[in-house]
Specification:
- The protein is mainly α.
- The chain has one domain (20-72).
- It has three helices and no strands.
- It has helices spanning 3-18, 20-37, 45-62.
- The N and C termini lie far apart (37 Å).
- One of its GO terms (molecular function) is oxidoreductase activity, acting on iron-sulfur proteins as donors.
Length: 72
Amino acid sequence: MSSEMIKMMKDFFINYFKYHKELKKQDEWIKKYAKHKNYKVNPHWMMYTNLKLWLIETQKMFGKRVLPGYYR
């Protein structure tokens, strides 16, 4: 396993525990948003959790949720 992969996994779990309480709120928002837009959410646990972590971090950074690859 490469050192970059180990770092990525370490960062993932650090953020997972850091934002553990906020993940449920993001989960509810994602499900409502996906239903409204008729989207399907990636069922892979790590991918879905990364999305929730991304939303938490962008909300802290920009004051609003920013979806990856979606800019206005």
